[in-house]
């Protein structure tokens, strides 16, 4: 039976394809369509979403606890619990009784809120009463610190009119309220924002980090507005936007290039956070130019500093003009903040490209920032990194050790890394304005949500994604529920085969779009999506034609032997250097137009509990390569990529490539090489 498009799919965005489907027993009708974005208009009946006059969000976040991660993602969260994040109070001097977050007269800045923002959510996502109780202890003190004028937190920050640490704590409060329904959070935030509203302009975001990061404050104002509808919050939001640094103009400029060290706009973490700020305010202003500014700035930063796989851009504190080689690192804070920006941008715009970007960082960059047991991390992770030593013999903006793994150092990342995976897990599924559900980020999990007319459905997502391209969804529902199910088709997907209850669907699974299946879903319905994971080669023109290899959402790097050497810390919390035991200076002999001629899948298996190690890498590739004797280390750092194709008299070898997120030492951007 064929269903007329308009009748079934009114209100959808761009409609690209509609297929008539055979009637399935028990279902009245079914539609399969391809859209660029879930509907941008409408109201989700079941979940808190933007309240007018704020623009509706095409993707609506589900409450914490709706999604239970499984498989490799669950193990990341469990390892976090047993590792640094779950036990940071044993390590961090910022989480002690003398913290200004316990005693307002003491000192307390961003560190505790950074950690608590992730630690609390880790507890809520894992539904772990022990973690939740420990988070509550810190939250209770912060709540009780509220003064009659509405300010909360360490008094010293108030004296400096420094609202930045509180912006982070507001996220922790929000999650606490969402997860527990605590009735003190909304009054507290209302009173606090009254305090902010009462600040004269010269005291509201007067300078420094808070001025650059005011977008975080803005998001929490909208969170509260959506719950209380008090219009003065929109006045505050407008003032906050106006008082925040201007992220609508070009981030990069010749003037900032000259003073790169001083410009807060060139700080990697500020860019990762600030880049989304215009889109946050777009919700209120509705000006398309704000969304355009986000994309324009993203493109310009990535073009200049992001010629590398893994979704990051080189900023080994600040971005540094002329330092666009993939040996420059990205800070761990920058990774988790950029992932969150992508998650937020996906909500605000509904566009799948932001979800592609979040996945790229999560799978390829974030795992490498920590030891596999998640008990130590480093400051900088680079696509070309051949030594994680403590020598400081690297060309980074800062001196000292930045790439050795240490639970005791890297003060901001040490705390801020906590929210990366929990927030990721919270965005796997989102609700849509036509009361549907969207598979936004793919990972093994189970979601329970209301859809359609309010019926509760659970969807078990069984997959080894990103290591495998097959995703199996099984619906559980006490009664049939009609709703649209959106399946994101990633940008790398060469195509996808979809089936329903074993029968192939005639779907146009176009990369960068969503396939939407509208139907009355019933208990036991099964959807299978198989993304084809082709081997692809990406040529980086700005790096002399250097090349990176991708298969599906994973980028691959040369497997380099790792020697782990203790370099400090304690027996319980050791610090590590990771040193190379095999050569790294290889170029690939590859035809980028036909990469599968020289690169093949060597092994593909099921992910283990911690797949992000070289030994446990579920997928291995092999490629043809030659050593490049002239490509040498500079200090302990990989030399700049030589322009290719490089002639090499060295023998042609078969080398093993591992997913770059599994490797702590890696070459993920290769010069192209030819035998001489
Ligand atoms: Zn950091």
Report on this model:
The chain is α+β, with helices and mostly antiparallel strands. The protein is 30% helix and 22% strand. It is built from 18 helices and 31 strands. The strands form eight sheets. A seven-stranded mixed β-sheet has the order 1-2-16-13-9-8-3. The chain has a seven-stranded antiparallel β-sheet with strand order 4-10-11-12-17-14-15. Strands 18, 19, 20, 23, 24, 25 and 29 form a seven-stranded antiparallel β-sheet that branches. Strand 19 and strand 20 form a beta hairpin. Helix 13 (277-285) packs antiparallel against helix 14. The radius of gyration is 25 Å and the shape is globular. Mean pLDDT is 95; it is low at 1-27.
Short note summarizing the structure:
Helix content is 30%, strand content 22%.
Bound small molecules, which ones? Answer: zinc ion
Oligomeric state of the chains in view: single chain
From the spread of the alpha carbons, the general shape counts as globular
Number of helices: 18
Tell me the strand order in the biggest sheet: 1-2-16-13-9-8-3
Poorly predicted segments:
1-27
Biggest sheet architecture: 7 strands, mixed
Structural class: alpha+beta
β content, as a range? 15-25%
Average of pLDDT? 95
Query: Helical amount among residues, as a percent range?
Result: 25-40%
> What is the distance, rounded to the nearest whole angstrom, between the alpha carbons of the first and last residues?
63 Å
**Care to count the β-strands?**
31
